TrEMBL record:
Annotated PROSITE patterns: CN_HYDROLASE, GNAT
InterPro entries documented for this protein: Acyl_CoA_acyltransferase, C-N_Hydrolase, C-N_Hydrolase_sf, GNAT_dom
All residue ranges annotated as the CN hydrolase domain in the record: 243-500
Entry-linked Pfam families: Acetyltransf_1, CN_hydrolase
Gene Ontology MF terms in the entry: acyltransferase activity, transferring groups other than amino-acyl groups
Name used for this protein in its record: GNAT family N-acetyltransferase
CDD domains, per database record: NAT_SF (cd04301), nitrilase_Rim1_like (cd07574)
Highest taxon of the lineage: Bacteria
PANTHER family recorded: HYDROLASE YHCX, NITRILASE-RELATED
Ranges of residues in domain N-acetyltransferase: 19-181
Length: 530
């Protein structure tokens, strides 16, 4: 983590073609994660997960750079904006970076924070670090920021501290050019000044003994004083002014065939598309309606196999619907037997550009385990859409705040929660938790549930639902935090127009600023799944 060195290696590869320095894109994420693993191999530190890189890109896409050679990512640079009140005081790497997700990015921050530079060990010696530092400085100047701040590594400290007695004396020797460190000497040559030493900055950095060298580069084109007029607030990619969401409160009823089931689904997709909706959400387990075709109560294993047989066709036709009606579909959830033999409750997301994503339920309920032998999934990732990054949590998952926070760290603004509850107290557990997720993460939460019943289908005897669209509770939103709400236990569609910019304003200047005020120095969420 922090700033890696670019010391040449004996196994350096020769670059036959040219080098391209550019902003990172979502397509680069797997390669960046793999690069970071290789860059920190043998140091005791681990690289970035794909979720972390997603967060960095979603929070501040302008600030993430890669160097590409012959179609391969060989260097990466990550930055975000932050206020001097935070960056110029002692801090830890995890605290200031939001545990590596860049979730403390402040669109109004006057300083650029350098959280990462890493270079492929096989390509060191080509001044790749210098090229990335140049890109950072150009971004800082183009955006009229005051300068760049970060804490750098001291990879030679553990071997040389005994000779100098203290880390301060060792740094002084490097500044005086009596000693050389591959990282700090490079940074000093790039006109960074030492502000001090931060103990326990990154405790897993054994070579640096956990220390970070607090460094600053001042933008020579800007005086350190408030700028006037204030700059326009930006947040990542250009977001639409308004996003229209529709939640389907779906009635469970017997169907005679798969075709009849899809006609019911298409009816709602057609309706909400006529209203120019960007998203439509269906409930959890709504595909269990397909089991009524069998006209007999199946055993749990027979039920799962029956549903699994329908899965390929379900995915094909739902994808076609999303394309044909120009709408993003959160396709409820569909219990499925996976190729590895596990049974998982999968939410399929069909985007109007033809892409299809899968989000497994992380926490199956005791009922799901009993009736369907469902196991919890291991992946939870944000999904890039034309309306910004979104997340999906299936019903019970919304009752675990760490999951929503993990998605918010990846940059989501919209959380979709398909649910299936049998009576009011079950419903209210999900509802109250969803409202809490909206408040504590300053996001929109869209709930979609079933009504009606399916006699003869195990665990779908009765349904209680009241679908709704929830918001934070602050002045830009409805006073009670409810943008729209269906009448309970009737089949209907509920719409709401949501403004992403209102969330950004609330996060940075609201009555309360839950995300901004998190104590990253004392707690955080660390994802160990895939």
């Amino acid at each position: 983590m922090s700033e890696a060195s670019e010391k040449p290696t004996r196994k350096r590869k020769k670059i036959e073609g040219g080098l391209v320095v550019r902003q990172a894109t979502a397509a680069d994420i797997p390669q960046i994660a793999d690069l970071s693993d290789r860059a920190y191999e043998g140091t005791g530190m681990i690289g970035y997960s794909e979720g972390m890189v997603k967060g960095q890109l979603h929070h501040y896409p302008k600030g993430q750079f890669v160097i590409e050679a012959e179609g391969r990512i060989i260097a990466y640079c990550a930055t975000f904006r932050i206020s001097g009140e935070i960056a110029l005081k002692p801090h830890t790497w995890g605290g200031i970076t939001g545990s590596g997700y860049a979730s403390r990015h402040d669109p109004e921050g006057e300083w650029l924070y350098g959280m990462e530079v890493c270079v492929d060990p096989e390509y060191r010696g080509y001044r790749l670090g210098q090229r990335l530092y140049n890109a950072r400085k150009k971004l800082c100047q183009d955006e009229k920021m005051l300068g760049i701040v970060f804490a750098g590594r001291l990879p030679t400290l553990s071997k040389k501290l005994k000779r100098y007695g203290s880390v301060e004396d060792y740094i002084a020797a490097i500044v005086a050019k009596k000693e050389r460190d591959p990282v700090l000497s490079f940074q000093l040559a790039n006109h960074f000044e030492v502000l001090g030493v931060i103990p326990k900055y990154l405790e897993v950095d054994a070579a640096s003994l956990g220390y970070g060298v607090h460094l600053r580069w001042k933008n020579p084109r800007i005086l350190e004083q408030p700028r006037n007029p204030p700059k326009k607030v930006e947040y990542g990619k250009r977001l639409p002014d308004t996003v229209r969401v529709a939640t389907v409160q779906y009635k469970q009823r017997r169907v005679e065939s798969f075709e009849q089931f899809m006609k019911h689904v298409e009816y709602f997709v057609d309706v909400v598309a006529d209203y120019k909706s960007d998203f439509v959400v269906f409930p959890e387990m709504f595909a269990l309606q397909l089991l009524s075709i069998e006209d007999q109560q199946l055993s749990p294993s027979e039920s799962i196999m029956a549903l699994t047989r329908h899965t390929p066709r379900f995915k094909t036709e739902m994808r076609e619907m999303a394309l044909r009606y120009n709408i993003n579909i959160i396709g409820g959830s569909h219990p499925t037997k996976m190729p590895n033999g596990r049974v998982e409750n999968i939410a399929y997301v069909f985007l109007r550009d033809g892409r299809v994503f899968e989000q497994p339920k992380i926490h199956p309920t005791p009922n799901e385990v009993y009736w369907w032998d469902i196991e919890g999934g291991l992946t939870l990732n944000s999904i890039d859409t034309d309306c910004g990054p979104i997340g999906v949590l299936i019903c019970y998952d919304s009752e675990f705040p760490e999951l929503a926070r993990h998605l918010v760290d990846q940059g989501i603004l919209f959380l979709f929660v398909p649910f299936c509850t049998d009576e009011r107290q079950s419903y209210l557990r999900v509802r109250y938790c969803c409202q809490a997720r909206a408040v504590e993460n300053q996001i929109y939460v869209v709930m979609s549930g079933n009504v009606g019943n399916l006699p003869g289908v195990a665990n779908m005897d009765i349904q209680y639902g009241q679908s709704c669209v929830l918001t934070p509770c602050d002045f830009p939103f409805a006073r009670d935090g409810i943008a729209a709400e269906a009448t309970e236990n009737v089949e209907t569609v509920t719409f709401a127009d949501l403004r992403p910019e209102a969330l950004i304003m609330a996060r940075n200047s609201g009555t309360v600023q839950n995300l901004k005020d998190r104590r990253h120095d004392v707690y955080g969420v660390r994802w160990t799944g895939k």
